[in-house]
Amino acid sequence: METRNSHQINFRVYAEHTDMMGIVYHANYLCFFERARTEMIRSSGLSLTMLAKYDCHFAINEVLLRYRYPAYLDDLLSVITKTSNIKSCSMVFDQVMHNQDNKLICEAQISVVCVNNKMKPRRLPENLFKSDS
């Protein structure tokens, strides 16, 4: 179930994502998680292009990945993204990836800082990912 603080995206693993053994190449997990974060922002009614027009960008300042089980060619993956530790200029994306058998594949904690075009911290967009309470 999606809430304003939770988003799920599903996608398939293609040959372009894998090494010669048919296992997802480790750096591609970052791409999968980036796609999930971008779609979460889009589901909130915004886009990265729209935010850029308002002098707002997300700069990653810390990444923690925990590889739990390999993903393989043709797997159907699901990424659930939640936000936590939301502050005036920063937040954390907590992400988990499972395969079609609900096996935990990878976990990520991605910390971002909201910056302007001069790379100076700026406030997060108002009500972005805040719960309806």
CATH architecture: Roll
> Which CATH C-level class is it?
Alpha Beta
**Biggest sheet architecture:** 5 strands, antiparallel
Strand fraction equals 35-45%
Overall morphology: elongated
Tally of structural domains: 1
In N-to-C order, the SSE pattern is EHHEEEE
Q: What's the number of helices?
A: 2
CATH topology grouping: Thiol Ester Dehydrase, Chain A
- Average pLDDT confidence is 92
Order of strands, main sheet, comes to 1-3-4-5-2
Taking pLDDT < 50 over at least 5 consecutive residues as the criterion, the unreliable ranges are: none
Which structural class should the secondary elements be placed in?
alpha+beta
Helix content: 10-25%
Q: CATH homologous superfamily - what is it?
A: Hotdog Thioesterase
Would you kindly provide a brief summary of this structure?
GO terms for molecular function: fatty acyl-CoA hydrolase activity. Keywords: Hydrolase. By secondary structure, the chain is an alpha+beta fold.
What report would you give on this structure?
- Belongs to the 4-hydroxybenzoyl-CoA thioesterase family.
- InterPro entries: 4-hydroxybenzoyl-CoA_TE, HB-CoA_thioesterase_AS, HotDog_dom_sf, YbgC/YbaW.
- Keywords: Hydrolase.
- GO terms for molecular function: fatty acyl-CoA hydrolase activity.
- Pfam families: 4HBT_2.
- By secondary structure, the chain is α+β, with helices and mostly antiparallel strands.
- The chain has one domain (6-115): Thiol Ester Dehydrase, Chain A (Roll), CATH 3.10.129.10.
- 17% of the residues lie in helices and 36% in strands.
- It is built from 2 helices and 5 strands; from the N terminus they run βααββββ.
- It has a 5-stranded antiparallel sheet with strand order 1-3-4-5-2.
- The model has no long low-confidence stretch (mean pLDDT 92).
